[in-house]
């Protein structure tokens, strides 16, 4: 029997199948979802994992048992589910465990218009009601409609970013055997691009590498293919294809902060003076560039629920995170790795310079990347760091501890799920960044597990 208390997280549902997450649990969640949201209709999609079809079908049974009609989109990426929710005006559920290993599965839920459902916006109530409904079955009375939404999704994205007139580009895409292998061909069809596919075969066992582009070892094949083929750009998608990582023509990673700044400038060209959201561990270059182009940068905590909430509150046109999540007002404030990739392709293809030169204008600082330390007493470690940096910079505790000095900053924050402290440091000079990073890690190391 599934363990609802364990699999319901702050923003989604995720657990090992079938030990923690099974079909009776999914069916109960389907019924609870309808009861809590009051949905008369629900749209459902799923990724390529072997467990996704039976879990999604169980959810559909539960939803239909509460008289809700279900639009079943079948295979899709998470941003396709957001498109479905937004374009159809329906609450939606995506069955995926994103980049997690094959034995995991989960659910991402949203209200009509792709409004996210998190712990404080209905997820806790769904969990509690589902716990009461496990094993309680009723005959399905709602209708079931199967609908292919992929063509509409591709058409919508191509309306937002017109790539039909860009110069011919050679593009390597690593789908990691995830849902990018399903969505990329539809979006790229007929465009002036030579597509070189890597691992487009849908396979939830991830036989080639994990579908997590944040880990450098998962980019090696893409980097090699870009160099060997003489490609203009490489794109790597995660398992549910809502995140995208960019590789330049030299086979080098492009920082998500640089991508955030690039897309922000493009959106500000369309919406002058607009607000741009960035989380507190994106580069200092992001708010600088936003201001230089007449925009209003707004800093927020790390995490998609905070980004989406702040975007809606501020009416922001775009938001970016260090984790390669990118959010668009024109996409119901939801995140889409594909849409971000299309903006980069447009910026590259509308002029003649290579990608490395295009993004150089958006890369101003040297960053450490995220460094994790296992720490038994996180508060004690943070106290020691505060003490060591007292008087050397300004302190900010919006999310963990951020210390900002002349030409440098770092953020040290606790993981929500593990006994880890996560460090990000940045400076105008690489040597200064390294010195700050090493100093903080040395202090943290004294209270390590």
From TrEMBL:
Domain of life assignment: Bacteria
Organism: Nonomuraea cypriaca
Family: Belongs to the phosphohexose mutase family.
Name of this chain's protein: Phosphomannomutase/phosphoglucomutase
Residues covered by the Alpha-D-phosphohexomutase alpha/beta/alpha domain: 6-130, 153-251, 259-365
Keyword Phosphoprotein listed: yes
Pfam families: PGM_PMM_I, PGM_PMM_II, PGM_PMM_III, PGM_PMM_IV
Location of the Alpha-D-phosphohexomutase C-terminal domain: 370-441
Statement: the UniProt record of this protein carries the keyword Ribosomal protein: no
Cofactor needs: Mg(2+)
GO terms (BP aspect): carbohydrate metabolic process
Entry keyword set: Isomerase, Magnesium, Metal-binding, Phosphoprotein
Organism phylogeny: Bacteria, Bacillati, Actinomycetota, Actinomycetes, Streptosporangiales
